[in-house]
Design a protein that fits this description.
The complex is a heterodimer of chains A (667) and B (327). Chain A is built from 29 helices and no strands. With 667 residues, chain A is mainly α. Chain A starts with 22 loop residues before the first helix and ends with a helix. The chains are: A mainly alpha (667), B alpha/beta (327).
Chain lengths: 667, 327
């Protein structure tokens, strides 16, 4: 996955925009369409739900072989077990400190009062007073919801994963920043780690690392290391080479230049990387609950068993609060680093050194009190706020279902019969060689031989996995979801980008949409849209559109004032302003929104399998639950990764093409 | 100006610190207790740690609640509940992290792998619950068209079940993929005009049946007893050709109903040979579908905690519990 950087664009004079794809690609598309209809039903490579190809069977046999040799292989006994016990010890340390009792103690060492004080102090010192206030209020709310212990469990696990992810990711990121060849080597590995559905490697991880905190941490690590690594690489690259050269020319060694020049200058971006790593770790909270990771994710999963919308919403809200607090704190810390480097005065400096020491004293007292006294250890009250929140969630979803169900069913049928079924039957019934050839030609036209090669590798892997037909089903749903996401992104993003008050109101909602675990809104969606592919599409849209909206909003917001003023003074009305000035200038942002929207939608494929989407998502879940389908599930996971890489590279190429076109027009 | 502001802030904080310390000293202290002492007599052997897998359905949670409660309060065991899917629970036998699974639905593949081949697990007897899998429809539908409860009439009504997911055929809903189902083969071999729609999870299946009942939409799908949902919406069973031993031997030619599953318990060999009183409890544990549905209802609908629900049932059924603890 790419990090979204919006380079300031050379402005083309507002012309009627050419089609995003280009004339040649449109011809290929039409050609494919005609062939697909003519050759309908031939060589579609269908595969029954319970059938297995030989490749899939051999994958199952492979995992069985690993299973059998687990106890005797010296590699396992020495390396893997050592890793496991050290991670276990680390997590247990954190858990004993803040969330769980031990053999001799019914409660953790530091109770709620101590934790709140520590968080408040840490954020105030490293970030800002405002962020500290938000953090304290947020954490106290977690206790008021009646979910203190679960929140601390989640915090402990997240902290452990983030610390380890940074320990591994930052050094590797520095290496990748300095040596482009190394970066080229690890980029495919990172792509795999970020796109491969977690369900696929849940069972193997517990096979190696056993059930317990180690497995839960490692599952989270796999998803959290790529952001840390990638953003560190960008940070290192961002330091101008001239600065480094200057240092070297004044006599520092490369190592000194790294330590004293590059790393300090990259600090702000690295803090942004920490922010993204924390967000990635929190995203894994509910999945880790499937292998007995304690915390808020477990509350959500258990509530799902009885379709208890209220309780799962309560836990989901707690996850959102924790994510918002950690996000704002680390963002404020990044801004603080920026201010420090520009030597502006921060609020902490206004308060003076004395108050820092008193704050430390207060915190130590709070920790001590929370260690000794029960009232400061276990959060008081019985979570009445939480019960209220749960019952409000229950009654509102009940009301919505009662009154809107006809409307939502109508929408489901409209999209399914009108859009999804035609696209799906086209893709599934077209011969595989026709579709493969079309994608190959489009790739070559967009970016030449290199992209075409990637297309060949991805398509070949999908064919080898034996899941072409299911991949086409998933692709159809993905394309429809991406279409809705992009439309939402452009419409709402333009609105948000043009109006700052709207931005202020909508942004927290968008953040919540990205962080709220999908399991929470799955049950209400099932009630509204039924167990259909459309439900899966709606869930994907909820997850993907915040990113798309934010990207388009940033792009529209970035259109220079002078341009908009010139257009207005030349007599454009609002509609003309939007369609002929702001949107065309934000073209790169829109292309990026398409790219990111598709990637985010693909991330929801497995969740979609749990609500009726079928296709690859269902196969991954089935492989997780049925012994003899293990290989097929693994193959489905690989097919999802291949689709992801394919979509990512092609849409990126389209975005780059817009850049080139715009630059060519401007010169 | 900055110094004055800083001084004032420091003073405020100092006062706050002092008042906090004064106010905080008081109230109950955290005692360093050990876990609840066993009230059993000294003649029973020490129990130690008991690793109990808890699979993600409410019926199992009911089993686990009661067994854990009895093991903790009557045997003084340190019960460690692990929330795991079935696949990973069985894997835990091999690694020694799971001692017992309280409710196993068939799973011939896992039985073959871990009991027959690897010998790390063994059967610990039936739970007393009968698992009945079959085809079900909502009660309103059965009331309106009583003949729908026989498979021979299903083709007559097939178009009623059409949805956007099933093309031109009627939709037949399957649920969680952890159950091996024969529905595709049964539909094909009985010549029924239906298509299996894989909803992917129990939550999706239950929501479909629930909505079918409230919105009077025709829904047919695979379901099972014991299940907490049946006390909310009593689904009606559709009769397929009755099960005869061997009729489901070849998955491609299946054309009969599902056999009743005597649900059983599975324990690790290590646990069985350890002499722990918890093993005896697990071996002797058994109760009826009604018992399990009752505790499941406490947990799912009355929203009691596991321990509360277990305590309520145990207090009301002392003779059954005594039978488990004997011998």
């Amino acid at each position: 996955m790419t990090s979204a950087t919006l380079a300031p664009e050379k402005l083309a004079t507002p012309k009627t925009p050419k089609s995003l794809l280009g004339r040649k690609n449109a011809i290929v598309g039409i050609g494919w369409f005609i062939l697909a209809i003519l050759l309908k039903g031939r060589s579609t490579l269908p595969l029954n739900r319970s059938s297995l190809t030989s490749v899939q069977e051999s994958l199952t046999n492979l995992s069985d072989a690993i299973d059998r040799n687990r106890n005797s292989n010296p590699f396992f006994l020495n390396v893997i077990n050592k890793i496991r016990s050290s991670i276990n010890a680390f997590v247990n340390l954190l858990q004993d400190a803040i969330s769980q009792g031990s053999a001799t103690r019914a409660v953790p060492q530091i109770g709620w009062l101590g934790v709140v004080a520590v968080i408040g102090l840490a954020v105030a010192v490293f970030a800002s007073a405002r962020a500290a206030l938000l953090a304290v209020v947020g954490f106290v709310t977690l206790g008021l919801l009646g979910l203190w212990q679960e929140s601390m469990d989640t915090l402990a696990l997240t902290l452990a994963a983030v610390v380890l992810a940074l320990l591994i990711g930052i050094p590797l990121g520095v290496l990748a920043g300095l040596y482009p060849r190394f970066e080229k080597l690890i980029t495919p590995i990172l792509d795999f780690a970020q796109v491969m559905p977690t369900f696929v490697y849940l069972t193997p991880v517990t096979l190696f690392f056993l059930i317990g905190p180690a497995s839960a941490t490692i599952v989270t690590l796999i998803y959290a290391i790529p952001p840390a690594l990638r953003i560190t690489t960008v940070a290192i690259r961002g330091v101008p080479w001239s600065t480094v050269e200057a240092a070297v020319s004044m006599g520092s060694t490369r190592w000194q230049a790294l330590r004293k020049v590059q790393l300090p200058q990259a600090k702000r971006t690295i803090v942004v990387g920490i922010n993204q790593t924390i967000m990635a770790a929190l995203a894994m909270v509910t999945i880790a609950a499937l292998i007995d990771a304690p915390g808020l994710g477990l509350v959500v999963v258990k509530a799902l068993e009885t379709l208890d919308v209220g309780r799962s919403f309560k836990a989901g809200l707690a996850i959102v609060i924790m994510a918002v607090v950690l996000d704002r704190s680390t963002t404020a810390a990044a801004e603080r680093v920026q201010k420090d480097s520009m030597q502006q005065q921060t609020t902490a400096q206004k308060f003076g050194v004395a108050s820092k020491w008193i704050g430390l004293l207060l915190t130590l007292v709070a920790i001590y009190i929370s260690n000794i006294y029960l009232w400061a250890s276990q959060f008081p009250g019985s979570g009445i706020l939480g019960l209220k929140v749960a019952s409000i969630a229950d009654s509102s979803t009940g009301w919505i279902q009662l009154h809107l169900v006809n409307v939502t069913n109508g929408i489901t049928d409209l999209f399914s019969y009108g859009l999804l079924n035609p696209i799906q039957s086209l893709l599934v019934n077209a011969p595989w060689y026709t579709t493969a050839a079309a994608i190959f030609v489009i790739g070559y036209l967009l970016k030449g031989f290199r992209l075409a090669l990637i297309v060949v590798v991805c398509v070949a892997t999908i064919l080898i996995s034996g899941l072409w037909s299911d991949s086409m089903v998933t692709l159809a749903s993905t394309l429809v979801a991406a279409l809705i996401t992009v439309v939402l992104g452009i419409v709402v993003g333009t609105w948000v980008g043009r109006s700052l008050p709207v931005d202020r109101v909508l942004r927290p909602i968008l953040d919540a949409g990205q962080v709220m675990p999908a399991f929470v809104y799955l049950v209400p969606f099932l009630g509204l849209f039924g167990a259909t592919r459309f439900t899966a599409i709606m869930a994907a849209v909820v997850y993907a559109s915040p990113a798309a909206i934010k990207l388009v909003a940033d792009g529209v917001w970035g259109v220079p004032e002078s341009i908009t003023e010139a257009a207005i003074s030349a007599g454009s009305n609002t509609w003309q302003l939007i369609t002929k000035v702001q949107l065309p200038s934000a073209r790169r942002a829109i292309a990026l929104a398409i790219n990111q929207g598709l990637i985010y939608v693909l991330a929801m494929v497995v969740v979609g399998g749990l609500v009726g989407a079928g296709g690859l998502g269902y196969l991954v879940v089935a492989g997780f639950s049925q012994e003899n389908l293990k290989g097929k599930g693994l193959a489905a996971g690989v097919a999802i990764v291949m689709l992801g890489i394919l979509i990512d590279r092609i849409t990126q190429a389209i975005a780059d093409r817009r850049d080139v076109h715009a630059k060519a027009v401007a010169t | 100006m900055v110094r004055k502001g800083a001084k004032r802030t420091s003073l405020v904080l100092l006062i706050a610190a002092a008042s906090l310390v004064l106010a905080a000293c008081g109230g109950a202290k955290v005692s360093s207790t050990s876990s609840a002492a066993a009230s059993s007599s000294t003649s029973t052997p020490a129990c130690g740690t008991f690793n109990l897998a808890v699979n993600p359905w409410v019926g199992y949670e009911a089993d686990a609640a009661v067994v854990a409660y009895v093991a903790q309060t009557k045997l003084g065991c340190n019960v460690v509940k692990k929330n795991l899917s079935e696949e990973i629970s069985w894997q835990g036998f091999a690694t020694g992290e799971v001692d017992a699974i309280l409710e196993n639905w068939g799973h011939a593949d896992l039985t073959k792998k871990y009991i027959t081949e690897q010998k790390v697990a063994q059967d610990a007897g039936p739970t007393g619950n009968q698992g009945i899998i079959g085809w079900y429809v909502d009660p309103w539908l059965a009331q309106k068209y009583p003949d729908i409860l026989d498979y021979k009439n299903l083709n007559k009504y097939a178009s009623m079940f059409k949805t956007s997911e099933s093309g031109s055929k009627g939709a037949f809903l399957d649920g969680d993929p952890s159950y091996v189902t024969n529905d595709e083969a049964i539909i094909k071999n009985l010549g029924l005009n239906f298509k299996v729609v894989y909803t992917g999870s129990e939550a999706a299946l239950i929501t479909a049946f629930r909505n079918g009942e409230t919105q009077k939409k025709p829904v047919i799908g695979y379901f099972y007893e014991p299940q907490w949902f049946l006390s909310e919406v009593p689904l009606k069973h559709v009769a397929l050709p009755p099960y005869t031993p061997g009729c489901d031997a070849d998955p491609k030619t299946v054309a009969c109903d599902y056999p009743p599953y005597p649900l059983n318990k599975v324990v690790s060999t290590k646990f069985a040979t350890s002499g722990s009183p918890a093993y005896n409890l697990v071996k002797n544990f058994n109760w009826t579908n009604d018992d399990q549905n009752e505790v499941a209802k406490y947990i799912a609908q009355d929203k009691m905690t596991d321990d509360q629900a277990a305590k309520k049932w145990v207090d009301a059924n002392p003779d059954k519990v005594a039978a488990w603890l004997a011998g």
